[in-house]
Amino acid sequence: MNFRVDVWEGARIALSSLRSNRLRTVLTTVGIGVGVCTLLAIVGIIQGLNSSFAEQLGKIGSNTLQVSKFPWVMGGDWWEYRNRKQLSVDLVDPLRASSEHVVAVAPMYFEQAEVSFLQRRLASVQTMGTSPDYSLASSVEMATGRFLTDADVDNRSAVAVLGAEVVKVLFPGINPVGHRVLVDKRPYRVIGTIVERGTVLGENMDMVVMLPFTAFTGHFGTKRDLHIVVAVDKQESVPVVQDRLTEALRRERNTKPGAPDDFAINRPDQLASMYAKLTGALYGAATGVGLITLLVGGIGIMNIMLVSVRERTREIGVRRALGARKHTIILQFLMEAASVSAVGGALGTAVGMGLAWLVSYLTPLAASVQLLTVVAGVGFSAVVGLLFGIWPAARAANLDPVEALRHD
Fold first, then answer.
1. What confidence tens digit (pLDDT) does each residue in 116-139 have?
2. φ, ψ dihedrals at 180, nearest 5°
3. pLDDT tens, residue by residue, 13-46
């Protein structure tokens, strides 16, 4: 019961002191608020980037593998990768037969080309040559029409499937199915359109035109890098499938025993690992900057509280003479320091969140502040106030009552 009374009385006196020294309170609040604002803004941007990156990796598919000449994360000599012999479409069937867990295998050729319809043109559209399995490997959803078929590939049909952005620009208000578009000045009949897929790792997945890979190579040639995407039935089977793919590729490409692989099997989790390493260092540095700023704010609180103790020495002496115990004085000054710090933390949190969202709105950087981060920001600032208020509070409690009463 006495402790509750002490808390209530300490809170009342602390708030009264803060109101009577408004300028000092505001300056102290600003000091701690800047630290929390800096920390929250940086953490919000980093959390947003993490969420955005995880979402984009999800679009790639956690149960897919991509075979190519170049690894996504290069750790060796670029020329060594560059001089590897090209992958060929003949590898598709052996890779499909390498494991019972493989559900789809699709070749992918790429070229930037102009696509036009009547007077409308789009430059540098990602033109892809692929097969029907691509729709399974990449979870393609059709908006209208159909996707490529084996007959389209076998007959080298001049047909095309359009991405959502291409449809929006070239066919505003028109169903493009059945119309002919010019891809690099050659006509292709539109057989289907894809549901909007958004951006994945900076690449607009809707600015795309898909052709049968046989028609693509007949148009653009085969002297280009080939990528092969492999879809696995479940994520747990990915390591096993990767081993089987390695065996099949070495056998089909006649790689000598003991020689290094002359191909790369890429997995989305490799990108996730690299991203975690990069952002881990960034996160540590940003957190360090925020903590240093909070440290400066905490030192400001301590200095202000020491000044407050000096100014209120006589008041402390009177309270001690009337029976106030040491822990009551300590509680009062700690609550005062924590209150100032918590208010500064709350204001800093609000401003920090606002800055993070403003950066997200004005720039491509994503921002996302989690509720736990907000609570932690306010709570941590209060803890900073408590820590830096301990010395002034102890100094106030240890004042000699007689000497304090004589203080002018």
1. 998 899 988 999 999 999 988 887
2. -110, 135
3. 555 655 666 666 676 777 777 777 777 777 777 7
Longest dimension (CA), the chain: 105
Q: Assess whether pLDDT exceeds 50 at residue 12.
A: yes
Q: Looking at the whole model, is its pTM more than 0.70?
A: no
Three-state SS string across the chain, please?
CHHHHHHHHHHHHHHHHHHHCHHHHHHHHHHHHHHHHHHHHHHHHHHHHHHHHHHHHHHHCCCEEEEECCCCCCCCCHHHHHCCCCCCHHHHHHHHCCCCCEEEEEEEEEEEEEEEECCEEEEEEEEEEECCCHHHHCCCCEEEECCCCHHHHHCCCCEEEECHHHHHHHCCCCCCCCCEEEECCEEEEEEEEECCCCEECCEECCCEEEEEHHHHHHHHCCCCCCEEEEEECCHHHHHHHHHHHHHHHHHHCCCCCCCCCCCEEECHHHHHHHHHHHHHHHHHHHHHHHHHHHHHHHHHHHHHHHHHHHHCHHHHHHHHHCCCCHHHHHHHHHHHHHHHHHHHHHHHHHHHHHHHHHHHHHCCCCCCCCHHHHHHHHHHHHHHHHHHHHHHHHHHHCCCHHHHHHCC
